[in-house]
Amino acid sequence: MTSSKPSWTDRRLPAFFTRWRTDWKDEELTPANYLDFEGGLRFVLAAAWLFCPETVEYRGGVFLKARFGQDNVDNWFANLGDDRERVEAVTNQVKLWDTFNNTPLTDDDQLGEELPQLALALGECWQGILSARYPDLEITVEVSDEEDGSYGPTVTFWTSPAVSPFG
Q1: CA separation for the pair 142, 93 (Å, rounded)
Q2: Which of 85, 122, 129, 146 has the most CB atoms within 10 Å of its CB?
Q3: pLDDT higher for 134 or 37?
Q4: Distance between CA atoms of 75 and 66, rounded to whole angstroms?
Q5: Cα maximum dimension of the chain
């Protein structure tokens, strides 16, 4: 799966949720109900930083604040020959396996199988938020999942000057 301008169109309810709803014997329960019943507010508040990330501007680029380090970015500029878009793309990568490396992904909840959907949702959020935050830039969000499974679902973005329809 590689997608620029991600769109989360194949929305399947997670396996853990459908089991929970069945246990409650109420097929009308929604994911929002799950968050309320299971004390999810703490997790949703923390997830806001993932779905609506803080950013910093540096050397003409936009970087995730949580992944930004001036020395690191300067090293990437030196290694990539001042290719700002590539520097942004590599610096802004969020690998979901790394984000959730303390969570069992292969247990009965099948959470590892849910990560591609999460990556698409994250990418779609970033696309909208970053486009609104930086209206003078073209924002490209890429969601990928390597064929060999070496990195798992990954989300990144880079910017370029917006192209005016009037030239």
Answers
A1: 9
A2: 122
A3: 134
A4: 17
A5: 59
Q: Residue written as tokens 């970053």?
A: 130
Residue in 61, 43, 63, 44 with CA at minimum distance from that of residue 53: 63
- Tokens of residue 146, six digits: 């390597």
Say which residue, 145 or 149, is predicted with more confidence. Answer: 145
The answer to whether the beta carbons of residues 57 and 70 sit under 8 Å apart is no
Query: What backbone torsions phi and psi does residue 159 show, to the nearest 5 degrees?
Result: -125, 160
Which residues, including other chains, have CB under 8 Å from residue 127's CB and lie 6 or more apart?
Answer: 5, 6, 139, 141, 157
Structure tokens at 116: 């591609």
- Helix runs in 8-164, H state only: 15-23, 31-37, 41-51, 70-79, 84-91, 96-99, 111-133
Query: Which amino acid is it at 164?
Result: S
